[in-house]
Design a protein that fits this description.
The complex is a heterodimer of chains A (about 350) and B (about 260). Chain A has about 350 residues and is α+β, with helices and mostly antiparallel strands. In chain A, about 25% of the residues lie in helices and about 35% in strands. In chain A, helix 4 runs parallel beside helix 5. Chain B contains 12 helices and no strands. The chains are: A alpha+beta (about 350), B mainly alpha (about 260).
C-alpha cells in the first residue's frame, strides 16, 4: 500500500537517512520515537509536503515521489488540528469537496455520515475558535475523511488533548479505522497510544528507523538498546554470554536458553522483577538479595532501585505493596525474575 | 495601600512628557487657523488639487506595493534561502536612506544619461516633474512598510493550514486564495495604511524629482516660504483631516467586511 524505499531527506541540519517502510492496505501503522526523531518529517514527506533528496515513495503502486500533495490521495490531521479559523465547522468539513468531483448526493450522504459518526451535528455553524480540543480534533478527522483518502496521516492527534478527550478520540480513531478501508499512519511519542491502536509500528530515533515490527515484538523483543529503553525496559545490561548464563561482571543471570552471540544485552521490564522480604520458594531461577538504593514515587506506582555489586536493578510495585513490605531506603530485599522475562539481543 | 516607588513615578512622568511633546504642537497647529481661514483655504483650488494629488499618488504607491509586494512578502515568510537576510536588508534600504538621496538616486536612473532613462524617454514616460515620477518616489519609500507588515502577517499563519488544504486536494493557487489570503487580509490592509501614510508624508525625495505638479507637503513648504507660518497652517489642517477621514472610512469598511465573512 505505502512503500517507502531508501528515502533520504535533508531539512536544514536535520536529515532522515535510508528510510525503508512497507505498510499494508487498511493497516493501522504507528511511527514512534522521541521528539526530534523525524517522525513528522517522514509523515509530511509521504504527504508530499517535504521533498525527498533521494529514494521513492509508492502509494497503491503509484510512484508519488514527484507528485504534488493534492494528487496523492493522502489526508493529514495535525496535533494542533489546523482547522481553517475563518471557516465554520461545516465549511471546514466540506472544504475538500471543492477540489474533488463528487456527485452532490453522494457528498451529502458522506457528510451526514461523518457528522453522525463524529457527533458534529450541534457544532456545524460554529467557528473553530469556539470549540474544545476534542471537538476540534473530531472536526479535523471529519474534514480529512470527507475526501475519501486512501491514506490518513495522523500527526500526534492525541497529544494536545486532555485525558478525557484523549480517551474519546482514541476510541473514535479505533472505530473509524475498523469501519473504513483507509490505511492509517499515526505518529506518536506515547507508547500507550501505540499499544491500544496499532497493528504494527516502527521506532525512529535521530533520523533513522531503529526497528519495525508488530506491537508485541517491539514491546517484548526490542533489537537495540534504544528501543529497549524506549519501550520501558529499564533493566538493560551489557553482558557476556556463556551457555545459558549471562554475566554482568561477576553476577550470573540464568537465561534458560543459549544465545548465539557471546556478548550482547539483556533487558528486563521493571514490572517483571518481584520483590520479597525473604527468599521465595518458587520456580524463578534468578533470585538475589540487594540493598534498596532509592524509592521513586511515580504516582500510581513506585519505582524501587536495588543495588547489588554496583549493578542497579529497577522494580515497579504498587503503593500497597510498598507499605505492606515496609520498604525503605537502605534495607535489604530479595528480588527475583523468571528467565522467560529476560529478553536478550 | 502599598506606597508607589520612585521608579513608578519616573515612568509616569516620562510618559506624560512624551505625550505632551507629541500632542502639544499638533493641537496648537490644528487650532491655530481661524474658521474663516480654513473655509477660505478650502476654496483655494491649488491647495485642494495638491491634497488630492497627494492622496491619489500615495494610494497608487500602495496599490503597486500590494500587487508586487504581496508575492515577495509571501516568499520571504515561507521560504528559507541563502541570501534571504541580504534580500531583507535591501528591502529595508529605502527606510534608512536620507530622503533627498532617494530623489537623486531615482533621477540618476531616469535621467537622459542612463539607458533606462533613454528607454523611458522613447516610450514617452517622463519621471522628472511628473505624476509618474511622484508615484515612483512614493512607491520607493513606501514599499518596505508594506512588505514588512504583510510578511509578518503571512508568518503568523501556520503553514500547516496550507499543508492541510493541499492534502485535501487544493492546488497552491486555490490554497492561497481560499486560505492564506483571507487570513492575511488584515495585515495587507495594515500594510496598505502604513505604506500610504509613509508616502503621503514624503517631501525630501519628491521635491527633487517633481516640484511640480505640487503634492501637499511641497505646497505647504511653498506657502511657508512665501507667506509664512500663518498661511501654511490651514493647508496642514486640511491635509491631516482629510487623510485621517480617509483612513477612518477605509478602516470602517474593512471592519464591516470582516464581520460579514
Amino acid at each position: 500500500m505505502i512503500r517507502v524505499e531508501d528515502v533520504n531527506i535533508h531539512l536544514g541540519v536535520f536529515t532522515l537517512r535510508n528510510i525503508n517502510l512497507a505498510i499494508d492496505e487498511n493497516e493501522f501503522f504507528v511511527l514512534m520515537g522521541p521528539t526530534g526523531a523525524g517522525k513528522t518529517v517522514l509523515l509530511e514527506a509521504i504527504a508530499g509536503l517535504i521533498p525527498c533528496k533521494s529514494g521513492n515513495i509508492h502509494i497503491q503502486d503509484r510512484n508519488v515521489t514527484k507528485m504534488p500533495p493534492e494528487k496523492r490521495g493522502v489526508s493529514i490531521v495535525y496535533q494542533d488540528y489546523a482547522l481553517f479559523p475563518h471557516l465554520t465547522v461545516r465549511e471546514n468539513v466540506e472544504y475538500g469537496l471543492h477540489f474533488h468531483n463528487i456527485d452532490r448526493g453522494k457528498a451529502g450522504r458522506r457528510f451526514n455520515r461523518m457528522v453522525e459518526i463524529l457527533d458534529l451535528g450541534h457544532l456545524l455553524t460554529r467557528l473553530p475558535v469556539n470549540l474544545s480540543g476534542g471537538e476540534n480534533q473530531r472536526v479535523a478527522l471529519a474534514r480529512a475523511l470527507m475526501v475519501n483518502p486512501r491514506v490518513l496521516l495522523l500527526d500526534e492527534p492525541l497529544s494536545a488533548l486532555d485525558p478525557g478527550f484523549r480517551e474519546e478520540i482514541r476510541y473514535r480513531l479505533k472505530s473509524l479505522h475498523k469501519n473504513s478501508d483507509v490505511t492509517f499512519l499515526m505518529v506518536t511519542h506515547d507508547f500507550a497510544d501505540a499499544l491500544s491502536l496499532a497493528d504494527r509500528a516502527a521506532v525512529m530515533n535521530d533520523g533513522i528507523i531503529e526497528q519495525i515490527g508488530s506491537m508485541s515484538d517491539i514491546f517484548q523483543r526490542p533489537n537495540s538498546t534504544f528501543v529497549a529503553d524506549f519501550v520501558g525496559m529499564k533493566n538493560l545490561f551489557g553482558v557476556d554470554f556463556q551457555d545459558t548464563t549471562a554475566y554482568i561482571d561477576e553476577l550470573q543471570i540464568e537465561l534458560g536458553r543459549t544465545p548465539d552471540n557471546s556478548h550482547g544485552y539483556i533487558a528486563i521490564r521493571p514490572e517483571d522483577i518481584v520483590l520479597s522480604k525473604e527468599k521465595l520458594a518458587s520456580s524463578m531461577l534468578n533470585s538475589f538479595t540487594g540493598t534498596i538504593n532509592g524509592v521513586i514515587d511515580q504516582g500510581l506506582f513506585y519505582e524501587i532501585e536495588i543495588r547489588l555489586n554496583n549493578v542497579i536493578f529497577r522494580s515497579l510495585i504498587t503503593k500497597r505493596s510498598l507499605f505492606e513490605m515496609g520498604i525503605s531506603e537502605g534495607m535489604d530485599i530479595t528480588f527475583s525474575f523468571k528467565s522467560t522475562a529476560i529478553h536478550y539481543f | 495601600m502599598v506606597k508607589k516607588e520612585l521608579f513608578f513615578w519616573i515612568t509616569i512622568s516620562c510618559g506624560i512628557v512624551i505625550l505632551a511633546f507629541i500632542l502639544l504642537p499638533l493641537i496648537e497647529m490644528l487650532t491655530a487657523p481661524s474658521f474663516s481661514m480654513l473655509k477660505e483655504t478650502l476654496k483655494d483650488k491649488d491647495v485642494m488639487r495638491s491634497i488630492w494629488l497627494s492622496i491619489y499618488t500615495a494610494g497608487l504607491a500602495a496599490l503597486i506595493s500590494f500587487v508586487f509586494g504581496t508575492p515577495l512578502a509571501y516568499l520571504l515568510a515561507r521560504t528559507n534561502f541563502t541570501g534571504k537576510k541580504l534580500v531583507e536588508s535591501i528591502i529595508d534600504l529605502p527606510i534608512v536612506i536620507p530622503h533627498p538621496v532617494v530623489g537623486i538616486a531615482i533621477l540618476s536612473v531616469a535621467g537622459k544619461n542612463h539607458w533606462i532613462g533613454q528607454l523611458f524617454a522613447e516610450l514617452g514616460i517622463r519621471i522628472m516633474g511628473s505624476v509618474t515620477g511622484i508615484v515612483t518616489v512614493l512607491t520607493f519609500v513606501g514599499l518596505p512598510f508594506y512588505i514588512n507588515a504583510v510578511k509578518n502577517g503571512f508568518e503568523s499563519i501556520s503553514p500547516r493550514l496550507e499543508n492541510v488544504s493541499r492534502s485535501l486536494g487544493a492546488s497552491m493557487f486555490s490554497t492561497f486564495f481560499r486560505i492564506t489570503f483571507p487570513l492575511a487580509w488584515r495585515s495587507m490592509f495594515i500594510g496598505i495604511i502604513m505604506c500610504s501614510a509613509r508616502a503621503i508624508s514624503e517631501f525630501g525625495a519628491v521635491v527633487i524629482v517633481a516640484y511640480h505638479p505640487m503634492i501637499a507637503p511641497v505646497m505647504l513648504y511653498e506657502r511657508f516660504e512665501a507667506y509664512g507660518l500663518k498661511y501654511s497652517q490651514p493647508v496642514a489642517v486640511w491635509l491631516v483631516s482629510i487623510c485621517l477621514a480617509l483612513f477612518l472610512i477605509l478602516r470602517i469598511l474593512t471592519l464591516r467586511d470582516r464581520k460579514a465573512t
